[in-house]
Amino acid sequence: MQETPRIAIIGGGAAGFFAAITAAEKNPAAEILIYESTRKPLAKVLISGGGRCNVTNHCFDPGELVKNYPRGHKELLGPFHHFQPRDTIAWFEKHGVRLKVESDNRVFPVTDSAGTIADCLTRTALSLGVKIKVGTAIRKIARVVSRSGNSEFEIELQDGQTERALWLLLATGGGTSGHRLAQSLGHTIVPPVPSLFTFKISDPRLKNLSGVAFDNIHLFLKSENGRAIEQSGSLLITHWGLSGPAVLKLSAWGARTLHESRYRAELTVNFLPGHTAASGYETLLGHKSEHPRKLIKNTREANLPARYWERILSFLAIPDTTRWADISARDLHALSLELTQAKFKIIGKGQFKEEFVTCGGVSLKEVDFRTMESKICPGLYLAGEIIDIDGLTGGFNFQNAWTTAWIAGINLASKDRV
What we know:
Mean pLDDT: 94
Distance between the termini: 6 Å
Largest sheet: 7 strands, antiparallel
Number of domains: 2
CATH architecture of the largest domain: 3-Layer(bba) Sandwich
């Protein structure tokens, strides 16, 4: 006789719920149980995107999509050919959630409420017979052999009770509890460190300029251990240093390098992308030729906000009364360097609302990304941020959760025992 499949899912977040739903939809006979250690499942979904939930990103090319994952980009290419943002959008709309695409390609529910997403996942899971145990922390998990000779997972709860499952999915996110369980089952854990953070910089060029933004700049980071990373995009001055999409991307790609250097590094900012110091100098010579009688203060380089232009003129001791015709070759050279090779010392990392994203987790080498099954422990599956995968802001971390959970759910549901 065929035994009813019993699937245990540890973690009641986005990945855990989506895997449970996927498995239940594929195999209605499956007995599926979600264990959530807190009293509030889907808590991260509810607070994400400022309470709006950035569900995914409107990027439908797997080759382009993977470029947004500092860790896991190679491993996710195959999975994204099976389940990608287009599929995520279709899934939620099929289940009654209308979505919208914003100008920066981020996808949100039209309600602008993360509760819409959490309610959909909860309602769908319950309607499919998925059982949810909240406030149920897991003390340990062990592989045992049942009386029928099958290998099973023995799950010991915090209160000392034990339960069993034929197959197990770890979808606990980036927390240490899930890492501890994975490690106990034989997995290697890449130590987690923060990703997606701002840079602490104390510099007179930035003082009292909080809120000044730049649309297009190029960043070059060199850490104390000598590694170099580059990124382009928007930049924002804050009261503690620098932020904005370009900084966040740089922090993600350089997360481990910056951690190893104790968040001490040299940041070079090119405010004129595409220009070198030499070509920047020629551009300024053009200004001098075209506007000889105009004050430099009132004729700034187009890419720079007026407040920052005035600040660097002051920083270089170029008087407000200086006309383009009067600027010396030496000052013109110094100005071109400030525009194309401005150097800032990073002295630490700032706080950012997305800093709960970390890099680290179960080693990528120990997961079969065709099925999301462990290569170390047969019958164990992994999905979401418990794996050493992290994405940039913009819905990419949620897409990792949906994709890996969908693949895990499909493969969990296809299991059978005779």
